[in-house]
């Protein structure tokens, strides 16, 4: 538990509504799962992120970074220490030099896609239906329909766990399939510059509509989930392997392998994080038994075990 005296220190640079004690994490994840975090902080600028990290370090409070919570499974016991969440508070999107879009980490990918399209910029269409923030997308090198963050990012400004600002060029980001340098260095991504191309506006909107329709027809968007549960194993598709193993509709508690898309574990009925974990383990076991392929989760497990 956190000593509430820290509130006084935080209030020197944050507004009261940016500081939430005992925050229920199921309200901050697309899975709608997760216990309480001791403290949830909602910064609105890079300077606030620096001060938050410095204050937490001084008080020896560990912290976890969160975006839109669309690729995480938060444990039922919740998160000890602080969660620093990048959301609408920190979501500016701006045009620079006609081809560059500068976005704060909390901006939604959908909003950046629309912004780019409104300025006749092409390259970001693929991201329109990924329900993440800009920060979470860079962290995961999110991708869809042949596009990925790696192809559009020019540079990133991030704050180190010690509270210092660093700038990373594209080549320093170590972007690969669902991987970036931020998965090892613990920095908070704060501002991203995307480099796009001038294109035909109607073709851009058409591509965005096409991707949205394809998603709606294939993915179980009516039930809470964290998207694809597993990483793509080399040479296979996780969903196909799971489907071929006959696991669509398999349930543990309230968690279920989607009947619409076997690659998604969905929260079908008040699932707990342990339901999801147990279902993941069962899917891994059965797929390995039938196909000899090891599935590894793409969803990131966070919180107290
Ligand atoms: C219905 C559905 C469809 C999806 N489709 C796709 C898809 O097509 N392609 C795809 O790639 N993904 C997909 N996803 C997964 C998810 O949306 C992406 O991984 C997204 O990029 C995660 O962003 P987020 O802001 O929600 O990150 P979160 O889930 O909040 O966090 C994910 C990780 O990023 C870290 N992180 C978040 N923000 C920051 C930051 N500012 N600085 C440093 N670290 C940070 C967190 O610590 C965490 O480890 C889908 C998810 C859902 C629910």
Helix content: 25-40%
Give the structural class: alpha+beta
Count of helical stretches: 8
Which consecutive residue ranges, at least 5 long each, have pLDDT under 50? none
Q: Going across the major beta sheet, what is the strand order?
A: 6-7-13-11-12
Shape: globular
* Fraction in beta strands: 25-35%
The CATH class of the largest domain is identified as: Alpha Beta
Give a list of the ligands.
Answer: flavin-adenine dinucleotide
Largest sheet: 5 strands, antiparallel
Q: How many domains make up the 3D coordinates? A: 3
| Pattern of helices and strands | HEEHEEEEEHEHEEEEHEEHEHEEEHE
Cα-atom Rg, whole angstroms? 20 Å
